[in-house]
Design brief:
Strand order of the largest sheet: 2-1-3-6-7
Order of helices and strands: EHEHEEEHEHEHEEEEHEHHEE
Number of strands: 14
Distance between the termini: 37 Å
Radius of gyration: 19 Å
Helix content: 25-40%
Number of helices: 8
Structural class: alpha/beta
Shape: elongated
Strand content: 15-25%
Length: 225
């Protein structure tokens, strides 16, 4: 089975060196030099992310907190910071391990293997509600056993709702969280269209939705049926 690893490191020589070492081990490697580029790469399902902390367009720890929240993907930080406080902060935010620069490629490969083994032993994150079953790892949705095809934007919307069950989300907060492939904010009308399409795919009666409920004048709320 192929294992996909995303390497997010702005030092291009180091990024290429890591990629070369991992490809020799049989991994499929995806390279990114910034957080924006890394977010684009996440359209592809990753088995592990090597994430530099200090990047040109932000802090890797914020990326872990804001972008990867709710996704079951192991993260190993690449960092020049080796203080106990920095490491504890990263672990509290959800990283799986650290490796401090400069490092041995052999040690990196061993750490990756150990993290992947641990993550493989953990249970998959599934959401189930009546006939709905959503797999956060595979990004797949079934409705009463029938697989439902979702666009990338619909996947984002669904996961936002599932991560905030019972919470009213304003239209503004939804728009702030969703980007299109060109890295532009999704327009308000596009949000409405995609919520309508998502309702058609998951609701027994899209005109009387029981999951994605409209909170008039504010936004939307996911309710369990």
């Amino acid at each position: 089975m192929e294992r996909h690893i995303l390497v997010v490191e702005d030092d291009r020589a180091l990024n290429e060196g890591i990629a070369f070492a991992l490809m020799k081990e049989g991994y499929v490697v995806h390279k990114a030099w910034s957080l924006k580029e890394a977010e684009r790469k996440l359209v592809q399902k990753m088995d592990l992310i090597l994430l530099d902390i200090n990047l040109p367009d932000g802090d890797g720890r914020d990326f872990l907190k804001n972008i990867l929240s709710g996704q079951r993907v192991p993260v190993l930080f690449l960092t020049a910071k080796d203080s106990e406080e920095d490491m504890l902060k990263g672990f509290r935010m959800g990283c799986d391990d650290y490796i401090t620069k400069p490092f041995s490629m052999a040690v990196l490969v061993m750490k990756i293997g150990a993290v992947l083994k641990r993550s493989g032993e953990s249970s998959r994150r599934l959401y189930t509600d009546g006939g709905l079953v959503y797999d956060f790892e595979d990004k797949t949705l079934k409705n009463h056993g029938r697989k439902i095809e979702l666009t990338a934007l619909e996947v984002k919307l669904l996961e936002i709702f599932l991560d905030h069950k019972g919470i009213v989300l304003t239209r503004e907060s939804l728009l702030d969280r969703i980007w299109d492939a060109q890295e532009k904010y999704v327009e308000d009308r596009t949000l409405s269209v995609n919520i309508h399409r998502l309702r058609e795919k998951i609701e027994d009666d899209p005109e009387k939705p029981k999951h994605i409920r409209t909170v008039f004048g504010i936004g939307y709320k996911w309710e369990e049926g």
